[in-house]
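Lab notebook, bench 4. Continuing the backlog of folding jobs that were queued last week. Each job is logged with the same field layout so the records can be merged later without manual cleanup. Today's entry covers Regulator of G-protein signaling 4, a 210-residue chain. Filled in by technician R.K.

JOB TYPE: sequence-to-structure
TARGET: Regulator of G-protein signaling 4
LENGTH: 210
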Amino acid sequence: ECSALSSSPSWFLSFSAKDMKHRLGFLLQKSDSCDYSSSQSKKEKISSSQRLSQEEVRKWADSLENLIHHDRGLAAFRAFLKSEYSEENIEFWVSCEEYKKTKSPAKLSPKARKIYDEFISVQATKEVNLDSCTREKTSHNMLEPTLSCFDEAQRKIFTLMEKDSYRRFLKSPYYLDLVSPPGAGCGPENCKRNHTHTLDCNSNIISQCA
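JOB STATUS: finished
OUTPUT FIELD FOLLOWS
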């Protein structure tokens, strides 16, 4: 067989090599095309899953609970509170939620102390508005921190936000720009104020709406 191959004309070997190269190139192109299509399909699925529906946004107006338990609702509300220089309330609430997920008993005390020093103590850098009774009870809880040691303080701050800032949020561009009919856009005619930080109507990220 080897002798038969070696005696084959040179044009036959050349043709075979070119043919193989052509076929290999075609297969590689097809593979790249499939990979690209697969990549595009994945991106479209991800983009679709990240879209914020009007139904979701409208549910935020049902209760503060619905709003802050939705990742993007929480982001919008946090941005609004930041514009009012009162973001310490939602930051305290979020910190308490994360604290209650602590699994190691050894981490309870240092975590509780950090939250207390940041939001409740007299010299707290982000002191929240608590009545003296709740503040005193929370301080006493610091002696032996448990997963529920901030529960009362957290409820008071939640109620405060619910009766005050949450109602203003629903009337602000931070919410109205998202709940407006699809296609309305985020132009000057829909913005109450210039250079207001809000969630972009299409990309759902914090941006400026000029």
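OBSERVATION: The CA atoms of residues 44 and 137 lie 52 Å apart.
SIGNED: R.K.
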